[in-house]
Specification:
With 237 residues, the chain is mainly β. It has no helices and 17 strands. The protein starts with 22 loop residues before the first strand and ends with a strand.
Protein backbone atom coordinates (compact mmCIF):
# COMPACT_ATOMS: atom_id res chain seq x y z
CA UNK A 1 0.00 0.00 0.00
CA UNK A 2 1.07 3.53 -0.67
CA UNK A 3 2.32 5.47 2.35
CA UNK A 4 0.50 8.69 3.17
CA UNK A 5 1.70 12.14 4.16
CA UNK A 6 -0.35 13.28 7.12
CA UNK A 7 -2.23 16.49 6.52
CA UNK A 8 -2.01 18.77 9.53
CA UNK A 9 -5.59 20.03 9.32
CA UNK A 10 -8.72 18.18 10.36
CA UNK A 11 -12.35 18.57 9.50
CA UNK A 12 -13.85 18.24 12.95
CA UNK A 13 -15.07 21.82 13.13
CA UNK A 14 -17.67 22.01 10.45
CA UNK A 15 -19.49 25.35 10.30
CA UNK A 16 -23.13 25.59 11.29
CA UNK A 17 -24.25 28.18 8.76
CA UNK A 18 -25.66 26.56 5.65
CA UNK A 19 -26.06 28.25 2.29
CA UNK A 20 -29.24 28.20 0.20
CA UNK A 21 -27.62 25.80 -2.29
CA UNK A 22 -27.15 23.17 0.39
CA UNK A 23 -23.45 23.84 0.97
CA UNK A 24 -21.80 25.06 4.14
CA UNK A 25 -18.66 27.10 4.53
CA UNK A 26 -16.14 25.75 7.00
CA UNK A 27 -12.60 27.00 7.63
CA UNK A 28 -9.98 24.35 8.21
CA UNK A 29 -6.69 25.10 9.87
CA UNK A 30 -4.10 25.66 7.16
CA UNK A 31 -6.54 24.83 4.37
CA UNK A 32 -8.87 27.81 4.18
CA UNK A 33 -12.60 27.75 3.54
CA UNK A 34 -14.41 25.04 1.65
CA UNK A 35 -17.86 24.00 0.61
CA UNK A 36 -19.34 21.07 2.49
CA UNK A 37 -22.65 19.38 1.76
CA UNK A 38 -25.17 20.06 4.49
CA UNK A 39 -25.25 16.56 5.93
CA UNK A 40 -23.58 13.22 5.94
CA UNK A 41 -25.43 10.04 5.09
CA UNK A 42 -25.26 8.27 8.45
CA UNK A 43 -28.82 8.83 9.73
CA UNK A 44 -31.09 9.19 6.69
CA UNK A 45 -31.16 6.35 4.17
CA UNK A 46 -28.45 7.05 1.57
CA UNK A 47 -28.79 6.47 -2.15
CA UNK A 48 -27.48 3.17 -3.48
CA UNK A 49 -24.16 3.55 -5.28
CA UNK A 50 -22.83 1.58 -8.23
CA UNK A 51 -19.43 2.47 -9.66
CA UNK A 52 -17.38 1.10 -12.52
CA UNK A 53 -13.67 0.99 -11.63
CA UNK A 54 -11.14 2.00 -14.27
CA UNK A 55 -7.35 1.60 -14.42
CA UNK A 56 -5.56 3.40 -17.26
CA UNK A 57 -9.00 3.99 -18.80
CA UNK A 58 -9.74 0.25 -18.86
CA UNK A 59 -12.64 -1.04 -16.81
CA UNK A 60 -11.39 -3.61 -14.31
CA UNK A 61 -14.17 -3.91 -11.76
CA UNK A 62 -17.21 -2.69 -9.86
CA UNK A 63 -17.90 -1.21 -6.44
CA UNK A 64 -21.53 -1.42 -5.33
CA UNK A 65 -23.18 -0.20 -2.13
CA UNK A 66 -26.78 -1.06 -1.17
CA UNK A 67 -28.87 0.06 1.80
CA UNK A 68 -31.72 -1.68 3.59
CA UNK A 69 -33.79 0.22 6.19
CA UNK A 70 -34.20 -1.32 9.66
CA UNK A 71 -36.34 -0.35 12.64
CA UNK A 72 -33.67 1.96 14.09
CA UNK A 73 -31.20 2.52 11.27
CA UNK A 74 -30.12 0.65 8.16
CA UNK A 75 -27.92 -2.16 6.88
CA UNK A 76 -25.19 -1.58 4.29
CA UNK A 77 -23.96 -4.18 1.81
CA UNK A 78 -20.74 -3.43 -0.06
CA UNK A 79 -19.39 -5.55 -2.90
CA UNK A 80 -16.02 -4.81 -4.52
CA UNK A 81 -14.77 -6.91 -7.42
CA UNK A 82 -11.57 -6.22 -9.38
CA UNK A 83 -9.93 -8.32 -12.08
CA UNK A 84 -6.85 -7.32 -14.04
CA UNK A 85 -6.33 -9.36 -17.18
CA UNK A 86 -3.26 -9.76 -19.35
CA UNK A 87 -3.78 -11.43 -22.73
CA UNK A 88 -7.21 -12.65 -21.59
CA UNK A 89 -5.70 -14.28 -18.49
CA UNK A 90 -6.59 -12.96 -15.02
CA UNK A 91 -3.29 -11.72 -13.61
CA UNK A 92 -4.77 -10.29 -10.41
CA UNK A 93 -8.10 -10.39 -8.64
CA UNK A 94 -9.49 -8.76 -5.54
CA UNK A 95 -12.91 -9.07 -3.97
CA UNK A 96 -14.36 -7.76 -0.75
CA UNK A 97 -17.81 -8.28 0.78
CA UNK A 98 -18.96 -6.23 3.75
CA UNK A 99 -22.27 -6.30 5.60
CA UNK A 100 -22.64 -3.47 8.09
CA UNK A 101 -25.33 -2.37 10.54
CA UNK A 102 -25.74 1.32 11.39
CA UNK A 103 -27.86 2.54 14.32
CA UNK A 104 -28.24 6.16 15.34
CA UNK A 105 -25.69 7.27 12.78
CA UNK A 106 -22.97 4.91 14.02
CA UNK A 107 -21.50 1.63 12.82
CA UNK A 108 -22.40 -1.08 15.35
CA UNK A 109 -21.65 -4.29 13.47
CA UNK A 110 -19.71 -5.45 10.41
CA UNK A 111 -18.85 -8.74 8.79
CA UNK A 112 -16.20 -8.58 6.05
CA UNK A 113 -14.59 -11.19 3.81
CA UNK A 114 -11.65 -10.40 1.53
CA UNK A 115 -10.00 -12.37 -1.25
CA UNK A 116 -6.75 -10.63 -2.17
CA UNK A 117 -5.50 -12.57 -5.17
CA UNK A 118 -6.18 -15.87 -3.46
CA UNK A 119 -5.26 -14.81 0.07
CA UNK A 120 -8.51 -14.96 2.02
CA UNK A 121 -9.30 -13.25 5.31
CA UNK A 122 -12.30 -12.17 7.36
CA UNK A 123 -12.90 -9.38 9.85
CA UNK A 124 -15.71 -8.96 12.37
CA UNK A 125 -16.66 -5.73 14.16
CA UNK A 126 -19.18 -5.48 16.99
CA UNK A 127 -20.23 -2.67 19.32
CA UNK A 128 -19.56 -3.32 23.00
CA UNK A 129 -20.47 -0.39 25.19
CA UNK A 130 -18.45 2.68 24.20
CA UNK A 131 -16.15 0.69 21.90
CA UNK A 132 -16.09 -1.43 18.76
CA UNK A 133 -14.36 -4.79 19.03
CA UNK A 134 -12.43 -5.65 15.87
CA UNK A 135 -11.25 -9.20 15.25
CA UNK A 136 -9.61 -11.03 12.34
CA UNK A 137 -7.88 -9.63 9.30
CA UNK A 138 -4.90 -11.09 7.49
CA UNK A 139 -2.92 -11.44 10.73
CA UNK A 140 -5.84 -12.47 12.97
CA UNK A 141 -5.70 -9.39 15.20
CA UNK A 142 -7.95 -8.33 18.07
CA UNK A 143 -8.38 -4.72 19.14
CA UNK A 144 -10.88 -2.21 20.44
CA UNK A 145 -11.57 1.19 18.90
CA UNK A 146 -13.93 4.00 19.96
CA UNK A 147 -17.60 3.71 19.04
CA UNK A 148 -18.17 6.10 16.15
CA UNK A 149 -15.13 4.90 14.21
CA UNK A 150 -15.82 4.05 10.57
CA UNK A 151 -14.24 1.56 8.17
CA UNK A 152 -12.01 2.43 5.24
CA UNK A 153 -14.70 1.57 2.67
CA UNK A 154 -17.39 3.91 4.06
CA UNK A 155 -16.88 6.45 1.28
CA UNK A 156 -20.66 6.65 0.83
CA UNK A 157 -20.76 8.56 4.13
CA UNK A 158 -19.66 12.20 3.97
CA UNK A 159 -18.61 11.99 7.63
CA UNK A 160 -15.57 9.99 6.54
CA UNK A 161 -13.84 13.32 5.81
CA UNK A 162 -14.21 14.25 9.49
CA UNK A 163 -12.58 11.09 10.82
CA UNK A 164 -9.10 11.07 12.36
CA UNK A 165 -8.82 7.30 12.19
CA UNK A 166 -10.44 4.44 10.29
CA UNK A 167 -10.52 0.66 10.61
CA UNK A 168 -8.54 -0.93 7.78
CA UNK A 169 -10.87 -3.90 7.40
CA UNK A 170 -8.46 -6.12 5.49
CA UNK A 171 -5.69 -5.78 8.06
CA UNK A 172 -7.99 -5.29 11.08
CA UNK A 173 -5.96 -2.34 12.34
CA UNK A 174 -6.75 1.26 13.26
CA UNK A 175 -5.07 3.63 10.84
CA UNK A 176 -4.61 7.39 11.14
CA UNK A 177 -6.39 9.38 8.47
CA UNK A 178 -6.70 13.04 7.50
CA UNK A 179 -8.83 14.79 4.92
CA UNK A 180 -8.39 18.15 3.23
CA UNK A 181 -10.66 20.14 0.99
CA UNK A 182 -9.75 20.33 -2.68
CA UNK A 183 -12.51 22.87 -3.26
CA UNK A 184 -15.71 22.70 -5.24
CA UNK A 185 -15.98 21.99 -8.95
CA UNK A 186 -18.43 21.00 -11.66
CA UNK A 187 -18.57 17.44 -12.98
CA UNK A 188 -20.86 15.82 -15.52
CA UNK A 189 -22.96 12.78 -14.63
CA UNK A 190 -25.70 11.04 -16.56
CA UNK A 191 -28.18 13.70 -15.51
CA UNK A 192 -25.92 16.56 -16.59
CA UNK A 193 -23.44 18.88 -14.87
CA UNK A 194 -23.56 19.29 -11.08
CA UNK A 195 -21.54 21.20 -8.50
CA UNK A 196 -19.66 18.94 -6.09
CA UNK A 197 -17.26 19.16 -3.16
CA UNK A 198 -13.93 17.36 -3.55
CA UNK A 199 -11.80 16.02 -0.71
CA UNK A 200 -8.38 14.40 -0.55
CA UNK A 201 -8.01 11.59 1.99
CA UNK A 202 -4.67 10.25 3.18
CA UNK A 203 -4.24 7.28 5.51
CA UNK A 204 -1.24 5.49 6.94
CA UNK A 205 -2.62 2.20 5.67
CA UNK A 206 -5.19 1.26 3.09
CA UNK A 207 -7.02 3.45 0.62
CA UNK A 208 -6.01 7.02 -0.23
CA UNK A 209 -7.12 9.47 -2.90
CA UNK A 210 -9.90 11.89 -3.82
CA UNK A 211 -13.64 11.59 -3.30
CA UNK A 212 -16.45 13.83 -4.52
CA UNK A 213 -19.87 14.52 -2.92
CA UNK A 214 -22.93 16.31 -4.27
CA UNK A 215 -24.92 18.96 -2.37
CA UNK A 216 -27.01 16.26 -0.64
CA UNK A 217 -23.94 14.43 0.66
CA UNK A 218 -24.09 11.58 -1.88
CA UNK A 219 -20.81 10.02 -3.05
CA UNK A 220 -20.62 10.64 -6.80
CA UNK A 221 -17.00 10.08 -7.86
CA UNK A 222 -13.71 8.64 -6.66
CA UNK A 223 -10.05 8.42 -7.53
CA UNK A 224 -8.39 6.00 -5.12
CA UNK A 225 -4.75 4.97 -4.94
CA UNK A 226 -3.70 1.57 -3.68
CA UNK A 227 -0.43 -0.29 -4.18
CA UNK A 228 0.76 2.47 -6.42
CA UNK A 229 -2.18 2.10 -8.80
CA UNK A 230 -4.71 4.88 -9.45
CA UNK A 231 -8.28 3.63 -9.78
CA UNK A 232 -11.02 5.89 -11.15
CA UNK A 233 -14.54 5.40 -9.86
CA UNK A 234 -17.25 6.40 -12.34
CA UNK A 235 -20.84 6.43 -11.16
CA UNK A 236 -23.20 4.11 -12.98
CA UNK A 237 -26.21 4.48 -10.67
Amino acid sequence: DVGATTISSSVDKVGARWSRRGFALSCLGGVGCLALPVRGRAESLPLERRFAIFRDDNEIGRHEVRFTPTANGFDVSTDIDIKVKVAFITAFHFSQRANDRWIGGQLVESRVTTDDNGKESSTEIEARGPTLKVEGGVENRSLQVPLGTMTDIAFWNLDIVRQRSLVDIQKAILTDVAAASAGSETITLAGGPITVARFTINSQSGRNGDIWFDADGNWVKGRLVTRGETLDYRLIA
